[in-house]
Amino acid sequence: MKSFQRILNNRVLFKMALLFQVPLDFLTGMRLKELNEESCQVSVPYRWLNKNPFKSTFWAVLGMAAELSTGALVLMYTYKLDPSVAIIVGDCSGEFIAKAIDLTTFVCNDGKRIAETVEKAIKTGEPQEVLCKTIGYSKAGEEVARFTFTWKMKRRGGR
């Protein structure tokens, strides 16, 4: 877990990971601001590539940053586990509260619940789900959007 945090918290390694694993995230200028055991913060700027005709950040770009704020925590807790854990997004929903016209930072504080769910998936061998909430804030601290992602996970093979 700590090695995964070191990789993603290193700006150069994070950018390389995005470039090779999720190139669209790389192109949007997405940044991981913080990743620890309890929370993750991911920001995405409003800029030409990310804009919509309404002079705000395109909803799908916001969704990508929102997903990463939850997904980085899931990946951190499943990184190099033996037996490994299969993960997939089972559901997502979003609510848009205000126009995203500058930097938007998504904050997910569900690290503890994710860790407990991963542990349960490994111990029981049964598929598990965890509902992760993330809120996007403008530079001024105004709430811009809320997303909810249901992450499904299951232990692969092994005992």
Topology of helices and strands:
Blueprint: H1 2-9, H2 11-21, H3 23-28, E1 31-35, E2 40-44, H4 59-78, E3 85-96, E4 104-108, H5 111-124, E5 128-137, E6 143-155
Antiparallel strand pairs: 1-2, 2-4, 3-6, 4-5, 5-6
Helix pairs in contact: 4-5
Short recap of the structure:
With 159 residues, the chain is α+β, with helices and mostly antiparallel strands. Helix content is 37%, strand content 31%.
Uncertain regions spanning at least 5 consecutive residues:
none
Overall spatial form: globular
Mean pLDDT: 94
Structural class: alpha+beta
Radius of gyration from the alpha-carbon trace, in angstroms: 16 Å
Question: Mind describing the biggest β-sheet?
Answer: 6 strands, antiparallel
- What's the domain count? 1
Q: Fraction of residues in helices?
A: 25-40%
Q: In which order are the strands of the major sheet placed?
A: 1-2-4-5-6-3
CATH topology: Thiol Ester Dehydrase, Chain A
At the fourth CATH level, what is the homologous superfamily? Hotdog Thioesterase
User: Under the CATH scheme, which architecture would be assigned?
Assistant: Roll
Q: What is the terminal separation in angstroms?
A: 21 Å
* Beta strands, count: 6
Helix and strand element order: HHHEEHEEHEE
Total number of helices: 5
Strand content: 25-35%
What's the CATH class label?
Alpha Beta
